Amino acid sequence: MSLEKLARENVQKLTPYQSARRIGGSGEVWLNANESPDCQAFSLSDNELNRYPEFQPEALIDGYASYAGVDSSQVLASRGADEAIEVLIRTFCEPGVDRILICPPTYGMYTVSAETIGVEIAKLELDAQFNVDYDGLCQADAKLIFLCAPNNPTGNMLDHDKLCQVLEAQRDKAIVVVDEAYIEFIPEQTVVPLIKRYPNLVVTRTLSKAFALAGLRCGFTVADPEVIALMMKVIAPYPVPRPIADIATQALSAEGLDVMRSRVSELNRLRSEAVDTLSGLKMVSEVFPATGNYVLARFSDSASVFKAMGERGIVLRDFANKPRLEGCIRISIGDASEMAQTLAALRELDAL
Ligand code: PMP
Question: Which of 5, 79, 209, 238 is deepest in the core (most CB within 10 A)?
Answer without folding.
Answer: 209
